[in-house]
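re: ur question from earlier - yeah i can do the single chain one, its not a big deal. heres the input i used so u can compare w yours
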Amino acid sequence: MTKGQDPFSGAQFSRAVQEVDVEADVEAGGREPFVDADLYDYEYRRRRADVTFYRHLARNRMEFGAGPILDLACGSGRLLVPLLRDGHELVGIDRSAEMLAAAARRIRRLALARRRRCTLVRADIRDYAVHRKATLAIAAFHSVQHLTEDEDFVRFLRRTRASMVRGAWLAFDVLPPDPSWLGRDSNRRWGRTLLRHPKTRQRFVYTTNHTFDADRRLLHMRLYYQPVDEKGRPAGQERVLRLCHRQFWPSDVERMLRLAGFRPTEIFGSFDGRLLAEEPEAADEHVYVAVAK
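and the output i got, formated as tokens:
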């Protein structure tokens, strides 16, 4: 598959999504996985490559001009706190009260000088305001994929462009659409993992499955948490969380970036700095960097 190809053309996908209340699924899919911040942080505690990448990017950007960094959809501070430790000034924006509370707890453990360089704002990344325009904005860990319509994505981009100085950098990542993965049997459970809740110590068996709406390019995932006893036997009612992601391809993203006042500069196929154009088939992330015109 080349850079500009549409990965969905000609592919066959399950139509089980027709059984889903799509609008309710979209709303819940951007909210339910972020209610339990402790569990979220535990599950993604080993995800560090993106943090390292964005820390290097921030360091490089500040060589051209210092200023505030926007951490858009900052969540529990997984990226925000390392950037504060690096000495940057941060504005963290998220709509989840639970995730922002977790971020605030992390920030309170920092030295006073670093705490003073951070502002947390509860807001939608499509509609927020800042007091000082930023020189860098980052939306990490597939956050923009919760923007499920082109209009939502362009609105986010335009709001961000209005919050940045000319020449500022915008960076974000999306999970590449993989037809073979999207077309998995939706009646099976995948990714079976045994885990223990970091606070309650309850043991769970975690599995997932999904359906894909090829017309709207929406991935409807279900995350299953089955409580089990010490012998692995079911021990209570299974908890089901919804997660909904829009699937983007570079041609979609580049077009909307230009429409919103950005000039795409680089698209990486991994957080190791490999350009997407060099090995498009091997890409495990699509990481975009653009300049505010």
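Residues 16-35+187-246 form one domain. not sure if urs matches, ping me
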